[in-house]
Amino acid sequence: MAEYYDLCVHSRPECADSPEKLKLVSNRYGFANIAITNHSTYWQPLESLDIISGIELVAKSSQMLRNLIGIYRDKVTILAVHGGDERINRVACGDSRVDILLHPESGTGSGLNHILATLAKKNDVAIGFSIDYLWRHRGYYRSKLLSLQRKNFSICKKFALKIILTNGAVSCYDLKAPREVEALSRFIGMDVTQSESALSTIPRDIVNKRLKIVKSG
Hints:
TIM Barrel, 9 helices
């Protein structure tokens, strides 16, 4: 039986719920573990060793992002980047210290192309797909974001990039069970095998890779 992981969950102090409460609810839904990846402006060390430590870096410039990567890489297990800006996406895909590029499509376009996909492949950077668009947005904007996600998923398939799925949760009420996340991923174009890997083996391998690096260092 697959073990499921959500590597992009937001908690207190950025949001209302504690890491422990989010972990408890996610376990009830069938997740083996979660990573707390608060935005960098809200980051603080996790007190619980049973939860995966992480961060989602938010930067206004390429240099700022490089500086933040240097500051936080050794402090967390999962280092994600909040993308959208083409310059930010490029730095994230081109830096092997980055684990996940989230929301590359948050800018004016899909945020990915063959150049960035080649960089992500070379540096083993995964692309994150969040299903929160389906309930946070309505109408044309939601349709646009899902269309951009489908485009990015096609690029990921073409270049055999690692992909992860996340609830994009900012409270325990945003959490969905793994099977629900997999079902909703059909809107992005994923099949059963692809969505299960994006929730289980791929995030697990990303965590194990970082833990192995820490131990060897």
